[in-house]
Predict the 3D structure of the following.
Amino acid sequence: MEYKKLLISRNKEEDIELAAKRATAYDASSEHKSESENKNNIKQSTRPQRGSKIVFCFSIAAVILMLITIISITIWFIFIKKAETTVNRTTATIDASTTGTTILTTSTTKTSIHVTSTTESTMFETSKTETTMFTTLTTETTPATKTAITTMSVVETTMLTTPTNFHTTVKNVSKFGKWKQNAITVAGGHGEGQQLNQFDHPLGIFIDKNKTIFIADYRNHRIVKWKYNATEGQIIAGGNGQGNRMDQLDRPINVIVDQENHSIIIADRGNRRVVQWFNQNQQILIENIGCYGLAMDKHGFLYVSDREKNEVRRWKMGEYNDGIVVAGGNGQGDQLNQLSFPNFIFVDEDQFVYVSDDNNNRVMKWRKDVKEGTTVAGGNGYGGNLNQLSYPEGVIVDDLGQIYVADYGNHRVMRWCEGKKEGEIVLSGNGDGNQSNQLYYPRDLSFDDDGNLYVADHYNHRIAKFEIIL
């Protein structure tokens, strides 16, 4: 019995010891497992959180870009507001025609100009131009920042439109230029009279670049301005009856336009004076002169033919002393240093003077600073042959040196090439009459810028236009 108890006790102790060993082993295993799990947890907790960091960086960049955008917009807005307050207005007087222009440059400065104009005047065409200019400046402050600044300026300009033809060399006429033989009546043509659509023996004419015609209306004692395609003219000088008052004229024989002073100059033959009109203001330039022809060169010198002294003199504008003799001046005669009743005159680009030498039935050319002239047309006595002229009147010269003469007594217009012994008929030649292909004592000639030829058809009381054949 005691042996059994002892055996049971021993077995129990072994069981208890075995259980204790198992418990110890389990505890060690659990402890080891816990340490491994803790190590894994520590490793996992120390790994970088990459996704979260990228999102964070994008957020920071977005905020920075937003701030830069706000700052840029603010700066741009401030400069725009400042620029828009800059408006410049200026007024100037210039000799040019109204032109709409757009200017664009491809550098850092871009400019756009828009021009609008209105025209209103009495004696001359006056253009009022308002120019709006937009300027864009691009300024680079840093490699990543650019600022655009736009400014605006308004320029108001008053321009006086004046002619380019001063009875000096005529352009746009070829060596073999021809004209339609049937004229178009562009002014007058309603018989002799004093209405605004009539003339009474028109004489000198002047045509500006707008094809406006200035006419010396001889027996109506007035100067008439006739605009292109108008049905009647406008009195711009005289028209107050025949007389010697400052607001009157007495048989005006010629008229030219002075671009420099924006006025007209008139040979007031009946009053033996040369007068200048600024709209309704008058000034006597030269007195006691048997004036007839007028011309002005590109330097602004005024030339006047004097039928009483048989000479042509030149004056510097503003200095009206005795002037300088540039043709004739040696008494009446037919020698090369003389003239006999000089009529219309023409001055070319070289200041050579062409004179219609009426009683000598010739046209003379006087070079600058010479004592004698040369005969360049006619000079073979009075007659109707191709080498003759009959009391020549108006004379003009084209850019080829060809000379056009109003052959008064032969009712035709002749063209002469210098050095030739004969001329050629370019207009009329069909005897005197009032048909469209006839002239009746032509007095003065003028070209427009297109090469059309205008004739003061004296006894038909009209201005005839002969269109050039291109």
